[in-house]
């Protein structure tokens, strides 16, 4: 169990009974969805209803955030198309050009798989590919065909080139095999690392994107278009034209120094350099979350993850402090992977573990939790102390360590007992900002609440240098190891926080598909980001975690302050229903199929005139 304070202190909050670790999930999950429960009973998703079960006034800030997200979702659902003609019209309106060749066949494929056909759901594709319109097609083909590992498609067959560990290549090839007969010739470089690989300076990316914008908004006359992709040369066993992207480890400097060069020159992060943080007296940047929030709760999920707008992330997340591996290039080249930071230029595809359905990450295909009423009123988390290469002088800044400490009753009690309301690796939010009912009286109420409603802990401490076992000399005084718990048993709890590890969390899709409520804290982007709406499909949590206690109290209640358990249930079940409509394996096929049609067009010498126009 996580003790998150020197052992022996405040024994009354030790780990007997329900552990006081992460009650924050409880709060966040309830506000995700205020949709009517009947939605789940229909084979197709008919959209959110509205059923606020509050009995108090004035409304909580979370009420407003849920209402706004629910309205956004309703608006999104009105954009669904049901015919090829409507789909192509929406495409041209949103993308400014004709669809790529093969679009009609792709549309039939998607319809046969009962997909939700909303053009906005594919926005991530066009965000990722936009800079590549600034590179000449011949150069893109040279880069892609000379890189290993990759998947090559020739004559409607997907062929693996090179190797990736942990079964990722096998999973991606298996995914590609389900759509290979529809694909043109192409070469698809793959990232086999947890960490993203491409981070191009902002000045260069701005020029590349400008070329895309100039080329768009020019709908060609149908008689002037080309309708067939070019064929690529046959594969060779030993390619004499191997491509070297110029990967570097950054010379030992923090990854932050590389990342901030992808930010605009006038951005807050471009010149920010803060190596360490004292949570008792944090720098002004620490409070940036306030301008991104509505009375302390995130109102802009996208901006909250943006390192360019949040210089404080450099001392709050292991990816910027010291990743496990740094192997990155400032040269734009097309490489595909499962996640990236907002400043990276990798091209997103569904992660291998999402397609493989490993029970370690999903709990099994047929096990996503039972009835809400049978679940424990508990915030539950298990995992390793990953997130990067933490060391004795940096571990207190890493995201997983901070989160476990902040939801541990003992460490919170210590923080309450100090004049600066701070602990080794976190500080408590100002009461004037959140006005928590559990902090209006004597100290000890918040720790007691955590003690009864949280159960979080590390199953391994991943020390650097590695001592050879699951322990770590410099964190052992603060964290006790707990036994692992299979995913299928984690669904017995109502609230499931999801935190970044070395990159994204491979459990997120499974949490969304479960009958429990996920609470998400991340700075990483994934393929499905344009399909999910914060406060409607999941509960967003800021990387400072300053909002966690308010989220927790909102859903659990405290004293005379009523909780919102029924709202948490509605969010969880509606989130599950929506995920079952847009995050299926079929949706992964549909997404990568369309992505590769667009990618093949960008790599084609005739890309400016290559288009589908048979509907006109």
TrEMBL record:
InterPro entries for the chain: CAP10, O-Glucosyltr/Glycosyltrsf_90
Keyword Membrane tagged: yes
Organism: Aspergillus rambellii
Protein name stated in the entry: Glycosyl transferase CAP10 domain-containing protein
Pfam families: Glyco_transf_90 (PF05686)
UniProt keyword terms in alphabetical order: Membrane, Transmembrane, Transmembrane helix
Superkingdom in the source lineage: Eukaryota
Protein's UniProt keywords contain Transcription regulation: no
């Amino acid at each position: 169990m996580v003790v998150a304070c020197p052992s022996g202190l405040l024994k009354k909050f030790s780990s007997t009974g329900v552990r006081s670790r992460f009650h924050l999930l409880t709060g966040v999950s309830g506000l995700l969805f205020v949709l009517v429960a009947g939605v789940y009973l229909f084979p197709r998703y008919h959209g959110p209803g509205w059923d606020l079960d509050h009995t108090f006034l004035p409304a909580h800030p979370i009420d407003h955030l849920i209402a706004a997200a629910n309205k956004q979702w309703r608006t999104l659902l009105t954009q669904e198309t049901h015919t090829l003609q409507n789909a192509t019209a929406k495409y041209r309106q949103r993308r400014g050009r004709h669809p790529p060749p093969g679009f009609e066949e792709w549309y039939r494929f998607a319809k046969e798989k009962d997909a939700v056909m909303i053009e906005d759901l594919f926005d991530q594709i066009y965000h990722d590919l936009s800079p590549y319109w600034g590179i000449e097609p011949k150069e893109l083909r040279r880069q892609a065909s000379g890189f290993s590992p990759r998947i090559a498609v020739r004559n409607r067959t997907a062929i693996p080139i090179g190797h990736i560990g942990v079964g990722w290549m096998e999973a991606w090839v298996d995914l590609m095999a389900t759509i290979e007969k529809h694909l043109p010739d192409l070469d698809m470089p793959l990232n086999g690392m947890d960490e993203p690989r491409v981070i191009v300076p902002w000045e260069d990316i701005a020029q590349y994107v400008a070329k895309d914008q100039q080329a768009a908004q020019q709908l060609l006359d149908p008689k002037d278009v080309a309708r067939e992709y070019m064929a690529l040369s046959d594969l060779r066993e030993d390619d004499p034209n191997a491509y070297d992207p110029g990967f570097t480890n950054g010379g030992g400097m923090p990854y932050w120094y590389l990342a901030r060069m992808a930010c605009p020159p006038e951005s807050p992060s471009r010149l920010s350099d803060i190596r360490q943080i004292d949570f008792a007296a944090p720098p002004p940047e620490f409070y940036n979350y306030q301008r991104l929030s509505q009375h302390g709760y995130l109102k802009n999920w996208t901006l909250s993850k943006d390192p360019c707008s949040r210089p404080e992330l450099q001392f709050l997340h292991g990816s910027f402090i010291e990743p496990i591996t740094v192997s990155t290039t400032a040269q734009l080249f097309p490489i595909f992977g499962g996640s990236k930071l907002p400043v990276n230029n990798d091209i997103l595809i569904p992660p291998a573990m999402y397609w493989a359905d490993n029970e370690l990450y999903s709990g099994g295909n047929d096990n996503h939790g039972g009835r809400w009423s049978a679940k424990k009123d508990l915030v539950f988390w298990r995992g390793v102390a990953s997130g990067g290469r933490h060391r004795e002088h940096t571990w207190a800044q890493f995201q997983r360590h901070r989160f476990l400490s902040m939801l541990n009753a003992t460490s919170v009690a210590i923080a309450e007992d100090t004049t600066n309301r701070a602990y080794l690796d976190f500080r408590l939010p100002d009461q004037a900002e959140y006005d928590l009912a559990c902090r209006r009286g004597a100290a000890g109420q918040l720790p007691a609440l955590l003690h009864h409603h949280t159960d979080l802990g590390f199953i391994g401490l991943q020390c650097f240098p590695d001592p050879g076992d699951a322990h770590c000399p410099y964190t052992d005084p603060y964290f006790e190891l707990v036994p692992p718990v299979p995913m299928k048993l984690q669904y017995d709890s109502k609230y499931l926080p999801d935190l970044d590890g070395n990159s994204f969390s491979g459990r997120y899709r499974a949490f969304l598909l479960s009958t429990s409520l996920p609470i998400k804290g991340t700075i990483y982007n994934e393929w499905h980001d344009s399909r999910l709406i914060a406060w409607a499909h999941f509960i967003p949590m800021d990387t400072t975690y300053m909002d966690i206690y308010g989220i927790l109290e909102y859903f659990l209640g405290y004293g005379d302050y009523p909780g919102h358990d029924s709202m948490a249930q509605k969010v969880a079940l509606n989130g599950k229903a929506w995920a079952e409509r847009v995050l299926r394996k079929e949706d992964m096929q549909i997404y990568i199929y369309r992505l590769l049609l667009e990618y093949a067009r960008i790599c084609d010498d005739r890309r400016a005139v290559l288009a589908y126009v048979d509907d006109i």
